[in-house]
Amino acid sequence: MLTNKVEICGVNTSKLPVLKNDKMRILFAQMQEGDNEARETLIQGNLRLVLSVIQRFSNRGEYVDDLFQVGCIGLIKAIDNFDLGQNVRFSTYAVPMIIGEIRRYLRDNNAVRVSRSLRDIAYKALQVRERLVNANEAEPSINLIARELDIPREEVVFALDAIQEPVSLFEPIYNDGGDPILVMDQISDDKNTDELWLEEIAIKEAMKKLNDREKHIVNLRFFAGKTQMEVADEIGISQAQVSRLEKAALKQLKKHI
Question: Given CB 3.0 to 4.6 Å as the disulfide criterion, which of 45, 128, 183, 235 pairs with 19?
Fold first, then answer.
């Protein structure tokens, strides 16, 4: 993703205007009286806000133009729903809406497909959680959310897990100024232990003791997964000969491993 790209969706981002808070309040008042030009000025004057938000998603591998367009949808929703009566800066109100729109886009376009019913349960659970947090000023338990929705706890857990965004193995989780520690550095791999690595080296060394025909048969049988009949057809000998040569090759390998 090119976050230093100057032109995004045909917009020259280096020339985007910046609106001061006092000017924006005047424009919002005009827009709410039906002035469409004021609305357009508000959109253009806050595109830099969208640019700042999409920087947070620069490691997702998404096209910056796509994220910018989705972020603009969130910005427009924020502009259309902003309440001047609330004593809050517009950017404070708009940023979560822009982030939410982008996250929704990433979830819906995720390579890991999640069924509509699961997404519905997850979104309802998030809405209930937000309502309970606002009401009780405390994080609700999964059990409480499940009771509010009148569905089993397991379904809520499964649904919330299903909409979690995948994390790249190359995502940095710590950096002290040197080489960063990545997610993959914290994951063990049972298939690549030292014992298996040494065993693989031993097999390669033992294979060098076989003659060319024996190597070819072993490779076809145990690495290419072919049957003795298929090997016999490929190298032009009988299955009985393949069987005999295979047994001799395996005996040699066992001797040297």
Answer: 45
| The two structure tokens encoding residue 9 | 């969706």
Dihedral sign from CA coordinates of 101, 103, 104, 109: positive
Read off φ and ψ for residue 39, nearest 5 degrees. -60, -45
Cβ contact 55:18 at 8 Å: no
Give tens-digit pLDDT for 136-147: 888 889 999 999
Dihedrals phi, psi of 88, to nearest 5 degrees: -145, 145
